Amino acid sequence: xxxxxxxxxxxxxxxxxxxxxxxxxxxxLAEFPVAAKGYIEHxxxxxxxxxxxxxxxxxxxxxxxxxxxxxxMQQMEENIATFRAFSQISKIxxxxxxxxxxxxxxxxxxxxxxxxxxxxxxxxxxxxxxLNLYNHFREGRYTRLQASKIYLSRYAAQLSQCxxxxxxxxxxxQNLKIAAxxxxxxxxxxxxxx
Length: 194
What we know:
The chain has two domains: 4-107, no CATH class; 117-191, no CATH class. The protein is built from ten helices and two strands; from the N terminus they run αβααβααααααα. Strands 1-2 form a two-stranded parallel ribbon. The protein is globular. It is mostly helical. Helices cover 55% and strands 5% of the residues. The chain starts with a helix and ends with a helix.
């Protein structure tokens, strides 16, 4: 899997129609980051993160269709409503997107989409849950102490079984350096208790 922007630009350069898969990045963009929520709610309270992500993709030149995964009826209904009343990205939407991108880059979150492909870990390490805990900490949903308590009670013993085989990385569609992230997370959360 390559860089989406680079692949998009190659397709447009060769006059190819584009099919966008996973416009909400496996749910990663389904909620606004905590740091951006207040601004977005003030700017445009009716905006939903998922609909903004899908409208952004469909507003791009050359996009023929979008393939979006859905987990429940509410998500399907929201997707249908988004496309039934489709409108191009406005100036307000562009401002919201810029703010969200800044908030996401500022948090330092890991780009895990919770696809769970890495769950094929031979040592049964709950990788997506550990990465999700870290992301919640980075977004300010947990303090470092709260995240450390959760980590130590649920995941630290599992992670001690990691042999750095990197099998998880072979299955990651986001090409994450999972082993390196797990090592950093372990050091960060254990440090809180030392």
